Every structure is written in C-alpha cells, then in structure tokens.
C-alpha cells in the first residue's frame, strides 16, 4: 500500500534572537538558534510556539546542515505539546550562503525536510503521538515555516 499524506498544520517559528556559533567541533560547525515564539494553525489545531526552545544545527563537511529543534507548542485551549524535529537542509553553496546571510531565498532552491515527533498529556491531541509525521521547511530571514504532514 502506498502511503498518503494529510496536511495537519503550519508552524511559524520566530528566530529573531540571532544565531549563536559554538565553533568548529569534531563533528562540524555547531550553531544554536534560539526559538523566540511563533504560532501554528491547521484544520484541527491552533496555538502559539512557546519561547525558550532551541534549534541545534551542525554544518557537516559535506555542507549538509543537520537540524534538531526542541520546543513547545501551546494550543489555544492551553494544552502543551512538546516537539522534537530532526532533519536536513542543503542546497547549492551560493544558495546556502544567501540563507546564512539572512536573504530571502525561494524554497525551490534548497532541500529542507524533517521528522517531527510530538508528546502531550491531553487525550484530545493524542493523534499527534499515534502517527508518523514528516515536514517541509522554509527558511525566512526571521522565521522558519514548517508544514507538518501525517503519513496515512
């Protein structure tokens, strides 16, 4: 059976605090991006991104960026949902340099995919913990847009 995708929601993550560069490590160049807020909305869920999470990025020697973001979503009815979102971003060197400078770059010019995993204590949102999700990402100068899809 071929899997189908069902759109669930878009997360608009604010990254207005700037990038903190740890430096070159044995694994590559480590950068940390503070998550300062945002929002999310879809057909069955809506709320805000709680400030305080982080996006840990590792620029590998093959110029692929490994991404692992950990943060919280708060629904409009007050429930908290944790998200761990791991993925990859890469593209031609000149495109990635433009992204790094904070320039607007069309999403068709680079690859940005991830696998979000959710955790919540509210049975109303347990559907987030009972399926596999994938996401597509778009890097904006002060935001990251993440479209979350459930594999059905």
From TrEMBL:
Family matches, as Pfam families: DUF3237 (PF11578)
InterPro entries noted in UniProt: UPF0311
Family: Belongs to the UPF0311 family.
Stated name of the protein: UPF0311 protein ACFQZS_16940
Organism: Mucilaginibacter calamicampi
């Amino acid at each position: 059976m071929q899997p189908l995708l069902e759109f669930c929601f878009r997360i608009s993550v604010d990254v207005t605090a700037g990038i903190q560069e740890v430096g070159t490590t044995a694994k590559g160049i480590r950068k940390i991006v503070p998550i300062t807020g945002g929002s999310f909305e879809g057909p069955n869920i809506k709320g805000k991104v709680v400030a305080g999470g982080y996006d840990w990025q590792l620029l590998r020697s093959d110029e692929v960026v490994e991404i692992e973001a950990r943060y919280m979503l708060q629904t409009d009815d007050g429930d908290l949902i944790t998200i761990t979102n791991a993925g990859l971003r890469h593209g031609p060197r000149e495109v990635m340099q433009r992204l790094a400078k904070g320039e607007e770059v069309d999403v068709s010019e680079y690859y940005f995919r991830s696998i979000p995993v959710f955790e919540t204590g509210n049975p109303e949102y347990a559907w987030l913990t009972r399926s596999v999700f994938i996401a597509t990402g778009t890097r904006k100068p002060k935001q990251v847009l993440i479209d979350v899809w459930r594999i059905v």
